[in-house]
Amino acid sequence: MKKYEQELFAQKTPYLQWLKLQETELERQYGHAPGKQVYKLPFSSCMDSVQRDMEFCDDVIYLFVKNGGSLSEYAGAVLADAFSDSEDVAMAYADEDHRGSLKELYGIEDTHCCAEYRGAPWFKPDFSPDTLVSFFYIGSVFAIRGSKILEMTGKYGSDSSIYELVYRIFMQELDRRRQGKAQGIVHMPKVLYTNDSLEDTEQTDSSEKIRQLDLADDRSRGAQDKVSVIIPSKDNADVLRKCMETLVRYTDYSCYELIIVDNGSSPEQKKCITHCIEGLKREKKDLVIRYLYQECAFNFSAMCNIGARSADGRFLLFLNDDIEIMDTEDGRQWLGRMAVYSAKAHVGAVGAKLYYPPEQKDTTCYKIQHAGITNMGIGPAHKLGGMADEGDLYHGHNTRNYDMLAVTAACLLIRKSVFDAAGGFDETFPVAYNDVELCFRLYQRGYFNVQVNEAVLIHHESLSRGKDTSPERQHRLEKEKRKLYQKYPLLNARDPFYSPNLVQWKKDVEYNTGYLYACDRQAEPVLLGSDGETGKRKQAVFKKYDARELLHARCGLAARICDRLTGYRDILFHIDNIYYDNICFDNDCSDSASFDNISYEDGIISDKITDNNIVIEGWCAVRNADNAELPRKLWLICDVRGQDFRDVYEFDIAPKLREDVAAVLEDGKKDDRTKNTALSGIQVKFAGSALKPGTYRIGAVCGGRLVCDPEKCVRVFHSDKGKYRR
Fold it and tell me: What local confidence, expressed as pLDDT, does residue 483 receive?
C-alpha cells in the first residue's frame, strides 16, 4: 500500500519529480567546483535604477536577484559558467519556480500544514527580443558582465532602469546576430530561483517607456503602409462574403487592397463572389479588389504565391476565407497592431490570436483556437488550443506578444520584400505545413516570427477544406511532415521559444512539466509462445476466455451467473484512444493537425506510413477489490481465423493517474469495497515494427482473467521501400 501511495503522490506532482532529477544533475556537475565568483545585486523591481551609487568593474559578473525569493545554491556557478564559455556572452538568465503548500501548488490536501513545497515553474524561452518589449520575461534571476553594464550606462545614462538596461543589451544583441556574431545572451534552462509567494505567479511586468523606446528605435515603420490582403478560396462564397464584409466594415486600418485567389469555383459560386465584390466596391469607393480566377488543383502555397505576385502593398496578409473580424473596439485594431510588428527590421512572419466561433451569440469568454505554433517533439502544435481566454495563461501566452518559432497562415502578415527574398511559400507543400516551413525558413535567415495576441480574430476552422481525419489525408499529412524535417533536420524536436523542460512527447496546450513516468516510456512487447511457461499461461487464459465467450453466445442467464461466480463482471475495461506517437524513440515527429484530429474508422488505426510508435490509452480496474497492487497486462491478440493458435503480444501496464475513473468508481454510493483506482489508467507506447503485420484485438489481463474491448483494434502494416505489405 505504501508503494501505491508513493506512486500516486509522484504522479500528482510531476514537477517535484523533475526537480529531483535537476538537483541531482546540478550536484553532479557543480557540487565539487565553486566556479567563478559573482557579485550579487538584490533588486525589488525591474524598474529599479541600475546605478544605486555603486561602481561597477569590468571583470566582474553581477548576479541580479529579486527580493522575495531565494537562490539555488548552484545559481552562481551555473550562471558564471555561461560567461566562461565565451567572452562574447554579455548576459545570462535562468528559470524559476514558487514556494507554497501542497494544496496551493497541486491541489492536494496535506496533513502537515506547515510543510512547504516547490511548484508552478516558469520555464522561459531563449533570446526573445519582442517578448521582452511586451513584458520583462527575464524575471527574477539573471547575470550581466560588468563591462556591458559600464558600456550601457555610459552611453544611455546612469539613471537607467534595470528593464532599460536589459532592453539596450537585447537590441545590441539583435545587431550582433544580423552581423553573424556569436550569441551574447544565454538562457540557462535550469531552475535557479524560488519565489516565496504564489501571489505574483502570473505577474507580467511591462513598461510603456520600453514600448516607446522600441517604436523610436525602429525607423523602418511608415504610417499606414499599404497591406495586400490575399485570400485563397474556392466554392465557398457565403463564408468568403462574411470574411470580406467583416474585414471592410470592422477594420480600423484603412490602407489595404483585397486579392481573392480562386482555383476553380463553380459558375454559380463564381457569380456569387463577383456579386459580393461589386457590392463591397459600392460600399467602399476607394477599395481595390482583384479577383484572380484560374482552374487548377488545390495548392495553398501556389495560390498564396499567385496573390503575392499581384500585390502592390508593402505588407502581404495571407488570410483564410473562414476568418471573421470582430466588431469590438479591440477587434477593429487587429491589422494595425500586427503591422507595428511586421514593420520591424528583424521580424519575419506575424500571427494573430484566433478564437473558435462562440457557442452562444453573446459570450464573455472565447475559446482559443490558436496562439502560435510550438515545434514540440511530436511536431508543430497549436498552443492554448481549446482553452478559455481567461487570465494570463502561462505567463501571458494569451495576452502578451511573444516571439514564436512559427505562426499560422490562417492569418499571417509579412513584409513583401522579406517574403520575396525568402522565395515565397514552398509549393511542394500544397496543403499542410506550408506556413511552418516558411516560418522555419525565415528563422534560419535570422528573422523572428511574432505571435501578436493583441490582434484577435474568429476562425471558423477548416470550413474551407474540412478536417484532416480521413486515412488519405492522414497519409498526406504524415508525408508532408516528414518532408518538413528532412528539409530542416536541425529543427527536429527543437524550438528555441519552448523550453526543453516542458512536455514534448504528447500534445500539451498548458505548458506542463516534461517529466517521464514509467507509463510514458516505450514498452517492449513479449510474444507469448505456444509452449513453455508463457505458452501455458496464454493457453490457460484463453481457455477461460473462450469458454466464457461460448457460454455468452449460447445462454445469457448462465453467462451472467458464470460472470458473477468467476468475477468477470467485476472487470472494468475501456480503451479511450489509439494514435501515433512519432516522438522520442525513433526521432520522428507527428503532425499537429493529425494529432488534433486523429481518428480511426470502425475502431481501427493503421500504421501505414512507417514503423511508427503507437499509443494505446484507456483504463482497467476491478470492482469490489483493492486495486492498489493489482497486476495488469495488456494483450494484443492477432485476429486470425481458422487456425489453431493466435499470436499474442503482452505488455506490462505501468500505473497511470486517472482521477476521473476513481471519482466514478469510488464515489461512496455504489460500492465502498472498490478501492485505490486512481492509478488504473492505461498508456502503452510501442514500436509498430515490434509486431508482426496484422490486425490485433486489444485486451487486458487481470488476475488471470482476460477481457477485450469489442470495438477497438490495432492494424499494423510495415513499409518496404515505400510499398506497404500486410
Answer: 93
